[in-house]
Amino acid sequence: MSDPACAVPLTTIAREWLRIGVTGFGGPPTHIVLLRRLCVSDRRWIGEAEFEDTIAAVNLLPGPASTQLAIWCGWRLRGTVGALLAGFCFILPGLLMIIGLAAVFLAEHPPEIVLGAAAGAGSAVAAVALHAAWGLAPASWKRIQNSEDNASHIGDKVRWLFYAALGAVSAATIGPWLVLVLLACGLIEVSVRLRGLAVRSVLPLPLAQPLAQPLAHPLAFLASDSTGTGGLLALAFTAFKVGALSYGGGFVIIPLMQHDAVGTRHWMSSGQFLDAVALGQITPGPVVQTVAVVGYAAAGVGGALLAAAVAFAPSFVFVLAGARRFDRLRGNRTVQAFLTGAGPAVIGAIAGSAVPLAAALARPWQYVLLVLAAAWLLLLRRGVVSALLLSAACGAVVALSCP
């Protein structure tokens, strides 16, 4: 990978990345299209092959991949300063928007129409999780079938289904410990593919325990938050877990965030958490921005800014520390084997996160909206933002009709 070009003015980076931050509704697919159009097609700052390789590389890292891609593009153009500026400008518009919406939705006495819109949008969140998992599944399924490391494609497929099912069950039942399950699935696949383990079908679940044992203690600490402290320290710790453990997309950390924000710290109710996830979807930027709403609920605007800063910090660190090594990371057989196992577990976890999200719904009409949103996304194949906005509009109508 070549060194930074050091030719593009910082003012241009600030202007263009702010523009993408403002217009990037629709999540990572939209962000990638806008960054490719700017850096590859229109300005020709970065070659197509290098850009595509970097997309693959950032998807190997924990954290929001499209944010890391935006940071990397800034690094590619102007080094560390460019990376910091690009990342800040990319994140800032969505962050300001979501904090402003959080102030409205989490106000002490919000208008009934606002409460109805929030309840309506929250109704669709579980369907959005299923839609995200459905969209990721084909590429992962193709990846495990096309692998040349294991001659038994039947065994590959069975293990894929096993990993996905384990991830789904774990997300639905043991949310804060989910990261251990993802690690175990990845390590099982490493053992199968790179250590000559003769496995032709599903490995027994107990094998996951010794494979994950070296990392069990530190990651258990991260998952459980045993510090016993509250206030800003607890908020920062939750945000750090969100930023450092969100491999495979923001929905993977939803069960963990829900456990901390609703179950342990009681910063917000289940309904308010659904609102937070919905706001993270309808604003430009990654789902990880949801942590800013959690921060606002815990400690106002200062808490929102703190949570966002801590959650996005790992992405900057990963890119700045590893940008020159992305090509080697992508070509590493051990990394590829790990992702072949962890990938389907992540997809299952995203689908499984729909269970606690749906369980948080409190009114019968919300379940009707959930079914309609699922049909809109999965059968009609329409967009996430439109599903959430239509659900919010329905919720507002219900609130006005039934005060």
From TrEMBL:
It is a multi-pass membrane protein. Keywords: Cell membrane, Membrane, Transmembrane, Transmembrane helix. Its main location: membrane. It comes from the Bacteria. The keyword Transmembrane applies. It is found in: Cell membrane. The chain crosses the membrane at residues 84-107, 113-139, 160-184, 232-256, 304-323, 335-358. InterPro entries: Chr_Tranpt_l_chain, CHR_Transporter, Chromate_transpt. NCBIfam families: 2A51. Belongs to the chromate ion transporter (CHR) (TC 2.A.51) family. This is Chromate efflux transporter. It comes from Catenulispora yoronensis.
